[in-house]
Amino acid sequence: MSYRLPSVDKEGLKERNYLGLSDSSSVDSSTIPNVSDKKSSLNFKATELRLGLPESQSPQRETDFGLLSPRTPDEKLLFPLLPCKDHASGHKRGSLAKSDSNNAPAAKAQVVGWPPIRSYRKNTMASSTSKNTNEVDGKPGLGALFVKVSMDGAPYLRKVDLRTYTCYQHLSSALEKMFSCFTLGQCGLHGAHGKERMSEVKLKDLLHGSEFVLTYEDKDGDWMLVGDVPWEIFTETCRKLKIMKGSDSIGLAPSAVEKSKNKDLIPLRV
Amino acid sequence: MDLRLPSKVLEHIFSFVDSNEDRNSVSLVCKSWYETERRTRKKIFVRNCYAVTPEAVARRFPEMRSLTLKGKPHFADYNLVPDGWGGYAWPWIEALAEKSPSLEELRLKRMVVTDECLEKIAASFKEFKALVLTSCEGFSTDGLAAIAVACSNLRELELRECIVEDLGGDWLSYFPETLTSLVSLDFSCLDSAVKLSDLERLVSRSPNLKSLKLNRAVSLEALGSLLRLAPQLVELGTGSFSDKLDQEAVSKLSQAFSELKQLKSLSGLWDVHPEYIPLLYSVCPRLTSLNLSYATVQMPDLVELLSRCSNLQKLWVMDLIEDKGLEAVASSCKELRELRVFPSGAEDLDETNVAMTEQGLVSVSEVCPNLESVLYFCVQFTNEALVTIARNRPNLKCFRLCVMEPFSPDHKTQKPLDEGFKAIVEGCKDLQRLSVSGLLTDKAFQYIGTHGKKIRMLSIAFAGESDLMLHHLLSGCESLNKLEIRDCPFGDTALLENAAKLETMRSLWMSSCFVSFGACKLLSQKMPKLNVEVIDEHPPETRPDSSPVERIYIYRTLAGPRLDMPEFVWTIHKNLEIGVSNLAIE
């Protein structure tokens, strides 16, 4: 079954044990006092949970929220909870200027379920505000992740559920079956160009050695060559698939290489 | 002297008692009243499907005709409840098929409904009239076909924001030609296009059709022909509003809209092209409910539209409306009762429109005397604004503010929003539902506990400092029925000290807080009438008592432990050998 842990942005995440608690301290947390010395009896002086004014010596705001469940149960709870403070530069909190932080990706940590917007609305809005308003983006539904697959020259689109595939190989053979009827007339009988292959997608097999490459649009709206990233990341970020003519994909290859950490990745050329 | 009224007389009297809250009170008076009431109740509401067994409900209410059931906790809407947690409709449908075959209406919210469920409904309830599924999942369009083909007296079929496996639009074509009783049809959440000619025929043979909510795939042009077939509509949900229409088509559509003399509610409006907004002008003056929350319409066009909606009571819109737009709403829509403003940028905060601030809500609160329900997503807020809103609108019943960046303080003073929410709970004495956000200390919750005496549902995220927060709420909020909390730094003590309170509430949800496994066990032992569910991926055997759990969901129940728990849900009944907690809590 699929079980989602609270996901946190993967970049710039620091695990901190803000509350400095030992294993039994959650038990020791103070009994409820009826007097107002509550702050001193609770264990928070030693922690980051102070409400200082912006110019106080609080560290630069970290916004890694969410619970990181420790893999081993006896690790301390990581509860990186920190009231937001202004950046040292004294920006007003209300402003949306996020670019000032060199932790920009961490500052926009993706917290599960926040802001509290229903998935239905998120999915619908994702497709409304996307650049191609005629096409519906991948809709993560209950166990299904449909993305549209289009192919240059094909008269209609297909929809595939990425979650029914476990690896690129699997996807490529399924696409091959779906789209082979379009390529038969075009591909001729090129032999496979054995040397230049993407490690995970044998596009030549997929497309009978024709001049097509498999690309996808990720959630940032960029078109990338399929196979750059590990399969799991691909399924999370892929919004559309497109089987493009090789000549159209030339512009993609350099950016795919730049984005990809694996500089050895050779873009497919036919 | 025998003071008992004959049961026939009692029955007659009770037939005037509509509300279930009143009927519940009636049934507590004495045994004979209980018996008479239960034999006459037709509409049953079970707000937690695990609080009671279907057999018990069927047994108690032999005349049940309408059942409303809710499954998953509210935070499931925001992906906080893992898939497979539960909320299955099947056991209910199976039991009712046997024990309540005269069932006519089924309304399910946040439940897992499969195609088998739908097929069973179609096969078992001969008089079935209404199926309303809200935020449900687990079924496909094949299940809908089963309902369509078999339920010959069907009046209502509504799918509200469900996640449906869409196998195509054929299901609609299964409505037989003999079906003429349709009053309400809502398939707005489906993707695939239905066959337009079948839809047109269905509409034209449904003279009682009052509510029609189309899906996005229905084009603007198709809408025109449908409206001409159903000018009696009271509620309309359009499809996509962005075809390229020629002048003749536009004027025909405009004519069709102006024929909708009964139309009170309008929704859908996906992909609205600004040039087509004037098509709606003719219906605006009669509208009481308008849902523009999927329409990416910019402020000037919104103002043009809303300035014509003088009778509007309910408005759902996106933050594209901006402060200026809300000022215009305030001056045009004096009857406004409910306002919901949704963020247009969804997950990417950079796209959020900063031209909408707290000022927009303040303007509306100043001018609209009937405003009682607010849901407002905003990037910033101030205490001053909250104080003003509370002063302007002491009649608020539902106030849900979502300042989107967690821990945001008052953006002018940098202080926590404690004082602002204090004004809200102090001023709005009838407040029943409250969602707080922004930077909040324990003080805020002290205020809520002190003043929020009528609050029934409370939602909290990223707030507070300590156990006191929870203690204030559980000990102060007398009417508290549902409490949901995420990412707040409190632990066991408040929970255990206020354990008795939990039996007076429907449910408590806490996730990413600091409640230990040991406390959960202790609570389970102390409170046998509660189900204390620990929802956590770590197997309980490996978990030390002091380790905090990811999520807990506590609810009162007459049904005992549930039998359908997945691996990641634990209650004490699963592993009694884990034994007594070794915590010592005073």
TrEMBL record, chain A:
Pfam families: AUX_IAA (PF02309). It is found in: Nucleus. GO terms for biological process: auxin-activated signaling pathway. The keyword Transcription regulation applies. InterPro entries: AUX/IAA_dom, AUX_IAA, PB1-like. GO terms for cellular component: nucleus. Keywords: Auxin signaling pathway, Nucleus, Repressor, Transcription, Transcription regulation. It comes from the Eukaryota. Residues 144-246 form the PB1 domain. The keyword Transcription applies. PROSITE patterns: PB1 (PS51745). Gene3D superfamilies: Phosphatidylinositol 3-kinase Catalytic Subunit, Chain A, domain 1. Residues 14-39, 90-109 are annotated as: Disordered. Belongs to the Aux/IAA family. Aux/IAA proteins are short-lived transcriptional factors that function as repressors of early auxin response genes at low auxin concentrations. This is Auxin-responsive protein. It comes from Eruca vesicaria subsp. sativa (Garden rocket).
TrEMBL record, chain B:
Gene3D superfamilies: 1.20.1280.50, Ribonuclease Inhibitor (3.80.10.10). Residues 1-48 form the F-box domain. Pfam families: F-box_5, Transp_inhibit. GO terms for molecular function: auxin binding. The keyword Membrane does not apply. GO terms for biological process: auxin-activated signaling pathway; pollen maturation. GO terms for cellular component: nucleus. InterPro entries: COI1_F-box, F-box_dom, Leu-rich_rpt_Cys-con_subtyp, LRR_dom_sf, Transp_inhibit. It comes from the Eukaryota. Pathway: Protein modification; protein ubiquitination. This is F-box domain-containing protein. It is found in: Nucleus. Keywords: Auxin signaling pathway, Developmental protein, Nucleus, Ubl conjugation pathway. PROSITE patterns: FBOX. It comes from Eruca vesicaria subsp. sativa (Garden rocket).
